[in-house]
Amino acid sequence: MTSSTSTIRFGRLAASAFTRDIQASFAFYRDVLGFQTVFQNGDPVGFMILVKDQAELHLSLLRDHKPSTANIAHLIVDDVDALHDVLVAAGVRIIKSLADKDYGLRAFVFADPDGNRIDVGQPMAPVAEAALHVERRRAPGSTFRNVGLADTVFEDVNLGGARFSDVNLAGARLENVNLSGVTIDNANIEGLTIFGIDIHALVQESLKRGG
Prior knowledge:
The protein is mostly beta strands. It has 2 domains: 15-123, 2,3-Dihydroxybiphenyl 1,2-Dioxygenase, domain 1 (Roll), CATH 3.10.180; 133-209, no CATH class. It is 15% helix and 38% strand. It has 3 helices and 16 strands. Strand 6 (93-100) and strand 7 form a beta hairpin. The chain starts with 14 loop residues before the first strand and ends with a helix. Keywords: Antibiotic resistance, Lyase. InterPro entries: 5peptide_repeat (IPR001646), Bleomycin-R (IPR000335), Glyas_Bleomycin-R_OHBP_Dase (IPR029068), Glyas_Fos-R_dOase_dom (IPR004360), VOC_core (IPR037523). It comes from Caulobacter vibrioides OR37. One of its GO terms (biological process) is response to antibiotic.
């Protein structure tokens, strides 16, 4: 039997976590991660829906819960290093250390008080040698390291705090881009233009003046 879902609109899909103590679990997600409860039921409470921004998590009471060694959820954030620091400071158990992954995320895995494992990640810079067109994207704090971005066009992109290190930016164009706090180390910037200004030419002219 075959079926098509092309005309069916899917609604929310939320992760679920079992807990031996639902109030203690809620306190962790509220106080450490900033979640708030938007729904609960049971007397005593046996189920909660927690939300923060676009993230949603369902807590269900299970007195004899035994945690899985697999991740129960994957969370994407815009500052994975900062969240990692928050969790470490709170004494949360880190299952897999923070690192740049070969699948394009900077990520780590932590366990909540019941041992439920959550994989947290932040997209890294796209790795490519061919020209790209990156537009309408938030990438604050991203690290572009050892990648070829020659002739890439960044348009309507938030690069606040991004770092370019050992990167080929020859011929790249940045248009309507937030560059607050951006650093560029050991990069080929020949032909790089920002808001239509040839940055390489400006650097060369500054060097000639001894600036």
